[in-house]
Amino acid sequence: MDVPEVDIATFAERQAEGAPVVDVREPDEYEGGHVPGATLIPLGEVADRADEVPSDGTVYVICARGGRSMKAAEHLAGLGRDVVNVGGGTMAWVDAGHPTVSGPDPR
Questions:
Q1: Is this model's pTM higher than 0.90 or not?
Q2: To bridge 61 with a disulfide, which of 37, 49, 69, 96 should be the other Cys (CB 3.0-4.6 Å)?
Q3: Where in the numbering of this chain does the Rhodanese domain appear (predicted)?
Q4: Torsion of CA 52, 42, 45, 72, to 10 degrees
């Protein structure tokens, strides 16, 4: 299934507008620094927790560099979710100078 992908600049605009973001990295990665507002659902839990992903509107899926998030996005798209992969992932977000939040909470 073809899942659309956006660059960090486009994602930053959508995130600033309040678009939902799902981070599929492992908890230790997430707690070390994540996009503000991102909900943690590790890749290995996506299938079991798909009902936690918003079904009304576009959801952006992010990981460290874009590989795991693409796998998660493909799975979610197969379930009918409107998902977009964030190309470059959290590393590109940080490299572009955007802020991150540390710890287990989304904000």
A1: yes
A2: 69
A3: 15-102
A4: 80
